[in-house]
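ok trying this again, last paste got cut off
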Amino acid sequence: MSAVAAEWIKLRSMRSTWWALGIGVLVSLVLTVLGAATVISRWDPARTSDQAAMGIVVAVYVGVVLAQLPLGMLGTMSISGEHASGMIDTTFVATPSRARVLMAKAVVLSGAAVGGSLLISVPGYLFGRFVAAEFRPSLLPAGAWTVIAGGTLMIVVTTLLGLALGTILRNGAVATAALVAIVLVLPFLAMNLPWGEQISPFLPAYPALQLIEQVPGIMPTWTAFTALAAWAVIPLSIAMIANERSRHGS
């Protein structure tokens, strides 16, 4: 717990933390409000209360996913900044286990990502219910929890992917470029390649978009969750190995 507490103090004391969270939450919340208002205004008057509630949740979590890149950049900066300043050496003196340091950072960043998603989703959901009041939306239909879990997992995974890339590459600009390539560029390229349909399910974008009901479901829900989570688990595992090798090589 002491490592987690130390990482929390470092994260909240960084100016970049509040910039990344602020920009991500503000932009995503504005787009959520505008998107929800536009979508709801086009609904069929015959829409049921459960359909209305589901539509609100989907619109909100499309907005949540839009915050993934600023939070992913926060992940890269949380470790690359320490390498650039040399503070990482002090961190490893205080906590010799590099795996423990990385896991502590992952826990703190995951909490920040979940917190950021709540700052977007809660006001967005309340606004959506207000705009859709004539449809008398139910509270949360059963299917809404898959969307909520999928959208939240996507923002957490991107944040942890940023942390892993920052740990492996040790350069904020390079790690951020790699993050943008994985999250934004590769899915676009896959759509325009003859064998893109075979690649897309293995990229983080498609499973996330399936879970928030933005693309056709081509895999079982549990597979989509697993494929998405793997983009945090595997890079973090590689980052741990790279950390250990750098220690033995130093």
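PB: full thing came through this time. The radius of gyration is 19 Å.
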